[in-house]
Write a structure and sequence with these properties.
This protein has 145 residues and is an alpha+beta fold. The protein has four helices and five strands, in the order E-H-H-E-E-E-H-E-H. Helix 1 crosses helix 2.
């Protein structure tokens, strides 16, 4: 049986928990760096972010970006961060976060929810496909010096 999962908007005081959760994606950002980044996106309407908790303990993080794009008739929602603690994986937390993302996107008028994922994250890719995502393109990037 899946434990009850509470999902709520992040607050500035969540920086320590977010710092720990981001380590699950391989990032080692300090609490101060997370706080700095939270301040950069202080208008959470276009960049909402959420913390998933079980028994008041953080078990997951979800961040979205909502954007109108020239080539889509409706705004697009992109999952920019999704991570679940290792101990909470395979217990419905990730699925709950994706469903929550779909609901947020729908309320924002989006008709598409997308995400990108590192090539080596094969377990994550399997999960994303299991919750309804499909491979639809190639992401390419370059550093701006």
């Amino acid at each position: 049986m899946t434990e009850l999962i509470d999902i709520r908007a992040i607050e500035p005081h969540d920086a320590p928990a977010i710092s720990v959760l981001m380590r699950g994606l391989g990032f080692k950002h300090s609490v101060e760096e997370i706080a700095r980044r939270l301040a950069l996106a202080s208008d959470r309407k276009m960049d909402p972010a959420f913390l998933a908790e079980q028994r008041d303990a953080p078990v997951g993080l979800l961040a979205l970006h909502i954007a109108p794009l020239l080539f889509y008739p409706q705004p697009l929602a992109r999952i920019t961060t999704i991570v679940v603690t290792e101990t909470a994986r395979r217990r419905g937390v990730g699925r709950s976060l994706v469903e929550f993302a779909r609901a947020v996107a729908k309320r924002a008028g989006c008709d598409t929810l997308e995400l990108t994922s590192g090539l080596g994250r094969t377990e994550a890719h399997t999960f994303y496909e299991a919750v309804g995502f499909h491979r639809s393109g190639v992401r390419m990037a370059c550093q701006i010096a």
